[in-house]
Amino acid sequence: MTTLCQQDAERREQTAQWFQGLRDRLCKAFETLEDIASDEIAEEVAGTFCKKKWQREDAKARNDNDNDNGNGGGDGGGGEMALMRGRVFEKVGVNVSTVYGTFAPALQREVKGASLDGTFWASGISVVAHPRSPRVPAVHFNTRYIQSAHGWFGGGGDLTPNEDDPAMRDLFHDAFRRVCEQHKQGRYEAYAKACDDYFTISHRNRVRGAGGIFFDNLNEDWQRDFDFVRDLGEAFLEVFPKIVRARARLPWSEAQRAQQLRVRGYYAEFNLVYDRGTRFGLLTNANPDAVLMSLPPLAAW
Amino acid sequence: MTTLCQQDAERREQTAQWFQGLRDRLCKAFETLEDIASDEIAEEVAGTFCKKKWQREDAKARNDNDNDNGNGGGDGGGGEMALMRGRVFEKVGVNVSTVYGTFAPALQREVKGASLDGTFWASGISVVAHPRSPRVPAVHFNTRYIQSAHGWFGGGGDLTPNEDDPAMRDLFHDAFRRVCEQHKQGRYEAYAKACDDYFTISHRNRVRGAGGIFFDNLNEDWQRDFDFVRDLGEAFLEVFPKIVRARARLPWSEAQRAQQLRVRGYYAEFNLVYDRGTRFGLLTNANPDAVLMSLPPLAAW
Hints:
Two copies of one chain form a homodimer. Chain A is α+β, with helices and mostly antiparallel strands. Chain A is built from nine helices and ten strands. The first copy, chain A, has helices spanning 4-33, 57-65, 105-110, 166-183, 187-198, 222-247, 254-273, 276-283, 288-291; strands spanning 50-55, 76-84, 89-102, 119-131, 138-147, 151-160, 200-201, 206-207, 212-218, 298-300. In chain A, the strands form two sheets. In chain A, strands 1-2-3-4-5-6-9 form a seven-stranded antiparallel β-sheet. In chain A, strands 7-8 form a two-stranded antiparallel ribbon. In chain A, a hairpin with a 3-residue loop joins strand 5 (138-147) and strand 6 (151-160). The interface between A and B is medium-sized, with 25 and 24 residues. Strand 10 (298-300) of chain A pairs antiparallel with strand 10 of chain B, so a sheet runs across the interface.
């Protein structure tokens, strides 16, 4: 018989392993895409990922001092950043992390599923790609599993093109729509709306990009929720390279590049002013390089 | 005999006029500096300022609807942005604004000198220069006068070089030090410390630049405070062009340019994550172009 505690541990193991495996496959897919050599970038060298492990500050301090911080299991964990600065991808980061500890008191009130004592365990994958060509859209994808009072999944994916192309937008949306509808009727509409609501740059009265899906606190049936999250990962792994292949050889003008740099400025504004994950990371002294991996390689204002 | 009310009105008139006049002289000084043609920029065209007036949203709405918003005098005012994208200055903005109305309730509690009913009048000048050459430092200067429960001045100036040059740093600091010490012993030390405290990028554990001065709620003797603020303006008008002239012809390398773009990334992070004026402006729907004038023309991460 499996006890509840064993079950929780198995779920942590399974999700963390899934995120890790998806990371490996995504990095491989991005490196393969570097082989595309359009006229503009043919002279440049194809990139490969550099990986860098990091540990949470509290965990480091505890290891240094051999001194628990008094909250029982202690705060700890860490992650691994994989960063490539290539030719098709001017900058692309794929981060995985598995962290645990106690939510800061302010956050304890904010997080819906926080346990009474605020302890949590969280694992996830986060991808942000900024292609060099303005004809290829930037993309963000993230899924995570959190255990606190209960366990839940969250995540999403959204596209930031520099031009209006309904076919490209539909290709991206349809990939997630199929997964959503397969798992639950009406889910796509709700998650697509949540995405538009979330990625709004209020001060500019515009959305960050062409949308996608966004969800949090998914806690219906663990196995089915996990299957859903895995299917989303598979869908992303299939659809984004397809979009890159379809567009990476399109020629581009100086004006299109300038427009891309302006869109990237808006992107940086959103992430630094509004994005919860970014602000939470910065204000809680997480590794700034990992938190800010999402920022564009070059942006203009 | 001058009544208190007349006196307040005269002070508003005098300060707003001073900021306006300083704006004109600064724009002229920056345009003159565009004549410097170092080897790297000799091919480029010297810039001139474009000016653009803007009105506060509430004021616009009131003018459109001829409908007061119910807080007595109403919210209103506006400003003028002057922006130059030139060759010595890749981007430099000089904004003046004069606005009045009622502090939002949240802000009423935050602002020390807010009147009981939250009404205020504020006028000021704000300058941010991002030179093209990485050998020339970026600079920020701002002074303002606010009337609410009482009247007070605030402001400061700080330098963001891309290399460590004590002589340049001292030249900048000494200009403000002289003005501070002339007006009150110990003021420079207090204001320089306030500047370092304020312009700290906590998540990177670094200060934004080489410091300067920062002050707020200055409310000792109106005439002497105003003289101090004017002397700061004169000092800035003298010292920054001197620094630009001394450094604008220095040759620079690709590595120095890349370093400048990284420093500008930190600059954008500070302004979007921490700067009170920027965040206040963005979250209260001020003109985003005026609020974000400070952002660098190009930044790298």
